[in-house]
Fold each of these.
Amino acid sequence: MTQTITVIRGDGIGPEIMDATLFILDKLGAGLQYEEADAGVAALEKHGDLMPKVTLDSIAKNKVALKSPLTTPVGGGFTSINVSLRRHFDLYANVRPVVSFPNTKSRYENIDMITVRENTEGAYISEGQEVSADGETAVSITRVTRKGSERVVRYAFELAKANGRKKVTAVHKANIIKSTSGLFLKVAREVAADYPEIEFQEMIVDNACMQLVMRPEQFDVVVTTNLFGDILSDLCAGLVGGLGLAPGANIGKDAAIFEAVHGTAPDIAGQGKANPVALLLAAVQMLEHLGQQDNAERLRKAIVATMDAKDSLTGDLGGTGSTMEFAKAIASRL
Ligand code: NAI
Ligand code: MG
């Protein structure tokens, strides 16, 4: 059965890493059809809109999108495209797996964890952002809801269950931020009670930072609110060798968007130097989401084997390969 996905080639290095990724997905025989849709600066030039309606319609129809990084122009009052996509499709869970790869700059070897970040509320609602007339005092509103907390914590437990993972850690600051973080923790405890087979752990966010740096291999699935999740998930990417290896999924009830965590890398765009692995790992997440566990595993193994052999690695990984040479080396190991 073929499945149609929306493909957004994006800006900067976006088209290069997407070419490499689609080349490999075709070799994999994933049976995917691609509906290309524009977003970002590429779309602004063609349609006069950073996120044209045809693109939103395509994602709504196909329910799954693979997306390269996009440039949100600075100035001109544009809302971040990624933020507006999250809002439009109510993509409530930001899911970022990190796994140790061979021959990276990481200090650790046994990391295999997933952070699940609440993606729609908390400190990022951009409401009530006020600075007093004298410029001396600033306030902003943080809002946490039972509904928002419940669905993201449940997603984390379901993810753990589906992947044979053993533990979910809820990261919070309920001892100080008693209202919002307190509600999140209370709901996390309630949801955890529905999953007696999975260990539930609570950890205060500052301790979680220290534990992640000292003993990251103790973590399995981490679930947390928006702001903490933003920070912790980048910290976790750093633990395994940086943004070039970090994918992320934005999951909602009606749509899911898979992407690399890094940006458009304007400094190396158009030079064939970009590392395609982060987008490829996003494709692995997408294949898992589509129920293609075997293909996801084959692709992940081919990436690991290529990195282990140091075959045609791109410059950020210490090699001299081009984006497409690296992709071909991976494809040869599928
Ligand atoms: P960036 O991630 O684009 O680049 C940071 C550094 O990492 C650069 O030196 C870059 O060359 C390197 N790098 C990033 N991805 C790489 C890859 N795949 N292979 C090799 N090296 C790689 O972050 P920056 O410079 O802060 O942002 C540049 C643009 O990207 C901005 O316009 C920003 O808005 C956009 N952006 C878009 C995102 C998205 O659409 N999801 C996420 C983050 C940034
Ligand atoms: Mg971030």
Note: The chain has a mean pLDDT of 95.
Amino acid sequence: MSFESLGLRAELLSAIATQGYTTPTPIQSQAIPVIFEGCDLLAGAQTGTGKTAAFALPIVQMLSETTTYKKRKHPRALVLVPTRELAAQVSEQLQNYGRRLSLSSIKIYGGVNIRPQMERLDRGVDIVVATPGRLLDHADRGTIKLNEIEFLVLDEADRMLDLGFIDDILRVAEFLPEERQNLLFSATYSKSIKQLADELLDQPRRIEVTRRNIAADAVTQAIYPVDRNRKREMLSHLIRKGDWSQVLVFTRTRYGADKLTDELLFDGIKAAPIHSNKSQSIRTRTLAEFKKGELRVLVATDVAARGLDIANLPYVVNYDLPQVPEDYVHRIGRTGRAGEDGVAISLVCPAEQARLVEIEKLLEYAVPQESIAEFPVIAVKRGVKAKPGQKAKGASKSKQKSAKAKSPAKPKKAAAKPAKEKSPTRTKTGRRGKVDTKPPAPKIGRRLSRTKTSK
Ligand code: AMP
């Protein structure tokens, strides 16, 4: 299937060509016709599948077809997203497509001054990409009118529920007109997602492009069992010996991200943290530096990293295994995007055995285990039995080859000299950091049916 055969306008085809996309991804070829038909959509798609363009292209095209000469003041499409970073990325794509058809779009999120957003809204805008809390702030102040919304997109809906946004989403829905087209994208289908879909969508068409929770195929995965207090040393070793130039490292807590950043800097590796305790301007600057290659390591928590789209990101490291097994899939999905190969490495200490077991049960396969000569091999319990000679899941032969070439993790590539001794840390260990998440979403169910916004 080609983009032309999807019925997209010439202006959008040229935007797509400029981005270097040649063929639609499965979510694009399936979702775009459904959206053009005017149906509500319930799409199971992870980040990295091309889902943003799957809704952005048809929405922009449909809005352009009904734009009148008299410029409208109030937004006609609303995209709700869980994080500021995702808001920035989605809005960038919408701006790129929209400006070719004289449609404007803005992003709205908290943590920054509300005034410029109010002024921008006052000038009139076609598409708004927003995190729910700040959007409600505007709606309550009357600085945004949502009664002309024709398209509602819930992007990464599962994550929005994880972050406890259910009440905000339902309140936003109360500001919307009943007649509208609804598109819900979620990497997973939980009971709560089904309830949310029942509440907000009208006879949606269902599309699922990847099997639930299955890790991106283009990612070559490995675990490195290691003693807890040698993790930092092993990470520095891997980065240096493998000459990794761009690595996204996940820690479980904000405190852990700051501490690891300090330690990497102490080891002479340029690193910076990104998490919800950092101001938006610092987060934006850090991400820009990382994308430009000015930072070698970005140390992130799950919340901050959700939705990050870094072109050709070659390496993801789980410094700590996530508490929620699904987050493992989200994390490693930062690499291996849009057909590129990626390598995802997990440093697993004995205390994390139970988490590894849960992750492998979810994946339904054992992640291949690797070791480095300088670090003693530690036995860890596995969730699924590894088959003898098992290769990393999903990687084709050629992919494996190139991924392996990127990976320095092979003992033969390790230097004869032991990695640098553990450096003294300036932060005291033993303090427990705060997990960078909000409390789990409240159960929805009965309350949903009370607030039903029928169409
Ligand atoms: P998304 O799932 O929307 O976050 O997109 C993941 C990545 O895929 C982004 O870097 C997009 O630029 C890229 N992408 C989206 N559609 C295509 C396509 N048809 N061909 C190649 N890359 C794409």
Note: The domain at 4-208 is CATH 3.40.50.300 (Rossmann fold).
